[in-house]
Specification:
By secondary structure, this protein is α/β, with parallel strands linked by helices. The chain contains twelve helices and 23 strands. Helix 10 packs parallel to helix 11.
């Protein structure tokens, strides 16, 4: 699967492109702005872009009006098709947000229900009670996502609904040549629907990638040969920033052992979760980390741990944003990309990740673990890479059994002689490939 060796870059188009918060019905080619980011994305080392919602919606994109039409605030279908072509020409794959659990109140089939009530041919597309009422005082009750009436839950056991969604996905492949889908609130989706979706998309394109949003619990309930390829790794998201803020690297090390360690009970060995340090729903990493010196280190961990790394637009040069200030604070309009020392560091980590099979597929084993230091091994078919993190402001002399005398740091190109141990500089990270 191509995704297992890729670096993802997430863009929230309605935010980045400066679209109005509410759908104003005016068609403007704002999505074309992303064309100016393609060289930056490529230089960063990303070879797949995950676009948050791009289809016509009421407001934020997750309240879909029409799965067949690019949101007018972003432009036309032709505008987006041109961008997808440009990305593919640069060797960058395209993954779209599949929002299939619910639609917006402006969705054409739901509008027909509001107009024609019991006589609507689409009444069974939703979970309705014509004897009830809702927060919008429509004179009928319907199920909304987690109680949000602006998000109308779809009936994914209705064959007409499934047929409509699958036809739309086929059209996205034909019109935009997309390479995969990120499934919004996959933990809410009917398990039978997930299996049918996997079987269907397997027929559309070789290695069509499916990753599901899941916040907790056992990710295996949506992962598997007949289900999804990947899932969002929220467990390690929390472990990453919390480990640095509390200066307790035992937290992230425990999560990684639980997920990918050498023991037989490991939960996700051989699977590839989508890893991230922030996204469109959570506080930006530059805002949540208490010590700015830890920012390069958290990215070094992101690219070295098992799984697929994903970078959120703007965070590669330290854009800030607090969840407490609302979702719009996390999804800003950015005129053009910026290249900084942090961006260069992330590019270096991304290059090492993509070029090293052990970092893409290798196992996970701890060699040294302290509150402020962590050294672990990723090994595959004789290739061994030791990943070292020192989160302390002081140098640390690490003593561990490397099993060899010399190594090359994949991040600096420098050779290293362990000699029974190694001095880790303050706030440092290294990827040592053992000779």
């Amino acid at each position: 699967m191509w995704a297992n060796e890729s670096v993802f870059y997430q863009i929230y188009p309605l935010g980045l492109c400066g679209a109005p918060r509410e759908n104003d019905g005016v068609t403007v080619n704002r999505i074309g702005r992303v064309a100016g980011w393609v060289e930056h994305i490529k230089a960063l080392g990303a070879d797949a872009v995950y676009f948050s919602p791009v289809f016509e919606s009421d407001c934020h994109g997750y309240d879909t009006r029409d799965y067949r039409k690019i949101d007018c605030r972003l432009g036309t279908n032709a505008d987006f098709a041109g961008l997808c072509t440009l990305l593919h020409e640069h060797g960058i794959r395209v993954v779209l947000d599949g929002v299939f659990n619910h639609v917006g109140r402006g969705f054409w089939a739901f509008q027909d229900v509001l107009k024609n009530r019991e006589a609507s041919p689409y009444k069974d597309w939703f979970f309705l009670n014509f004897g009830g009422n809702n927060g919008y005082n429509d004179g009928l009750w319907y199920e909304g996502w987690e109680g949000h009436y602006e998000l109308v839950k779809l009936n994914l056991r209705n064959e007409e609904v499934v047929g409509h969604l699958f036809a739309c996905i086929r059209a996205w492949v034909e019109e935009f040549d997309i390479d995969g889908l990120r499934l919004d609130v996959a933990y809410c989706l009917d398990p039978d629907f997930l299996c049918r979706l996997r079987a269907f998309t397997d027929t559309l394109k070789p290695e069509f990638f499916l990753v599901g949003e899941i916040l907790g619990g056992d990710y295996n309930r949506i992962l598997g040969e007949q289900k999804l390829h990947s899932a969002t790794n929220y467990e390690c998201y929390k472990g990453l920033y919390s480990s640095f803020n509390s200066l307790n690297l035992f937290e992230i090390a425990h999560s990684l052992l639980r997920q990918f360690g050498p023991e037989n009970w490991t939960l996700y060995k051989g699977k590839h979760l989508l890893n991230f340090v922030d996204n469109h729903d959570v506080t930006r990493v530059a805002s949540i980390l208490q010590n700015p010196a830890h920012l390069p280190l958290i990215y070094a961990l992101l690219f070295a741990m098992p799984g697929i790394p994903c970078v959120y637009y703007g965070s590669e040069w330290g854009v800030t944003g607090e969840k407490s200030q609302g979702d719009h604070a996390l999804r800003p309009c950015l005129e053009e990309p910026v290249w900084t020392e942090l961006t260069e560091w992330i590019s270096t980590c991304a290059a090492a990740h993509k070029q090293c099979k052990a970092l893409c597929y290798g196992g996970y084993r701890n060699l040294l673990l302290q509150n402020k230091q962590l050294i672990f091994e990723r090994a595959l078919d004789g290739q061994r890479v030791l990943v070292a993190i020192n989160a302390d402001a002081e140098p640390y002399t690490a003593h561990f059994d490397a099993g060899a005398g010399r190594a090359r740091d994949l991040l600096t190109g420098q050779e290293h002689d362990f000699g029974g141990g190694s001095i880790l500089p303050p706030y440092s990270a290294a990827y040592w490939e053992i000779f």
